[in-house]
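## Example record

The block below lists the input lines for one assembly entry, exactly as stored, with component labels intact.
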Amino acid sequence: MLDDQAIKALLLRTAARDDGAADAFRRLYELCAPLLLGVAQRIVVRRELAEEVLHDAFAKIWRSVDTFDPLANQPVAWMAAIVRNRAIDVRTTHDVARVDSYHAMLDDDPDGSLDRLFDWSPAADDDEDRRRAAQWLRDCLSRLAAPERQSLVLAYEHGLSHSELASHLKKPLGTVKSWVRRGMSSLRLCVESCMSGQAR
Amino acid sequence: MRLAGSPLLDALCGEYLVGTLRGAARRRFERARREEPLVAQRLDYWESVIAPRYTKMIEVQPSAAVWSRLERELSLSRYRAPWHQRLGFWRGWAVAATAALALAVGVDLARHEPPPVQIAQLTGKGELPVVTAHLSKDGRTLELHASRPVIAGPAQSYELWLLTPDGKVLSVAVLGSLDARFEVPESQRPRLREGGRLAVSVEPPGGSPTGRATGPVILVGPITI
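Predicted structure tokens for the full assembly:
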């Protein structure tokens, strides 16, 4: 797992735009690029597109690093959101779902996928809240109805749109739309109620 | 249309976060996020509630071309101290040449060589990171890895010293960061295998002008081969 405090220090040094900025940015790239390329490749599938996404995302990180909130606790999540957004844009302009091997690559085991993709164990530098938040999120995901969970994992991990979800899961568009919407809403409410201590 | 007061705001945040909000709707939401602080705030909140962390298992090594293109397009060299400032005039050339050589051969070494062996763990007081030193199998390349990144300030550099068992103090490298990879000077390669200690001191830019540590020794650890 990447060290959030170290990544944050590198982002702030990059934002300073001083003599050390380029070296800090390079180190940031060395530490985070492999993980972020993995995130991109799951969404755009093709390696050359994924590297294009990685390039664009790091160019954006360099340019908008001054908007990174130094109080935010999750610098890697901040960068991953930039990568995912760019990957989703690229995915919509290239018809990725047409690639022959595409459906075979999608995971039909969302529960296995959740534990392969994400690390739910607390990081060494986590405070008590973050420690519990990861566990709550994992618990709340397992409480969702299976089709909701599968839709969310496919959409989040592989960037599937509503219509791609419908065709992959062989369900009507309206059905998958409500799975996604209801799934996200239940997930948030569940984590919130854990946070306020009502659910335990 | 303002989104901030919309009853759909939460649903849109959720769809945006999971990635199913697409096309014009996605662009509208992104505009609202930039223009309406309440929308940005609500999305931040969602991101703090639903923030899974990826595992290292998904890592894929990018090709070197991605970084070279970034470095070129973003003109990163402008944000790096010129070499003569960083390394000092009196010994700059020699160190720069060594660094360039290490960089030039580094890529190949990384690809074809067996993994380097840890030879020392350097520790210091308080907040200082733990630095591990790894030596390549052929004894030519030393790598330092810090438990968190530490970069020398503009008015200083770090210097790595070899303290031999018979009491000699030899400069191994001048460093801008506690994460580094460099070629070990040829005369010191056999000595590294004789044990002794490695130490890091804080020096003026370019390293100690006297050939001995002039600043505080911040990290030290025994060589165990």
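The helical segments of chain B are 9-18, 23-35, 37-49, 64-73, 83-87, 89-112, 189-192. Residues 107-111 of chain B have pLDDT under 50 and may be disordered.
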